[in-house]
Amino acid sequence: MRNVEKHARARHVTVSLQRRGAMVRLVVKDDGTGFDPNQDPVGSEGKDGLGLVGLRERAGYVDGTVTIKSARRSGTEIDVRIPLPARIDTAARSG
Q1: Span 2-94: which CATH code?
Q2: pLDDT-based confidence at 92, cuts 50/70/90?
């Protein structure tokens, strides 16, 4: 949400958090300025942006994935999927 506030100039943002079986899914979508997700991120004042890199790293630590769809002037959608450990999934079913 900080990146949306800081960079996107979005008028609308939606956040969805769902659990489907053994997976948690977070989707953040905005109607902002968008960017080229294939280009290395550059933060303000020429500093490298670490927001999306950090997000990918954190998701990867727990075997999750991050998918980014964005294009200039077309907004951005970030889809994060994190698998739940088997013991959490089993406990939820029995409770």
Answers
A1: 3.30.565.10
A2: low
Task: Find out whether 75 and 10 touch, Cβ atoms under 8 Å.
Answer: yes
More confident position, 86 or 94: 86
Q: Specify whether the CB–CB gap between 55 and 20 falls below 8 A.
A: no
DSSP output for 9-59: --S-EEEEEEEETTEEEEEEEE-S----TTSPPB-GGGPBP-HHHHHHHHH
For 48-61, what is the mean pLDDT? Answer: 84
User: Two tokens at 75?
Assistant: 């907004």
Q: How do the domains of the chain map onto residue ranges?
A: 2-94
Query: Can you tell me the distance from the alpha carbon of 70 to that of 60, in angstroms, rounded to the nearest whole number?
Result: 21
Q: What is the pTM of this model?
A: 0.78
* Secondary structure (3-state) at 70: strand
What's the rounded Cα separation, in Å, for the pair 83 and 23? Answer: 4
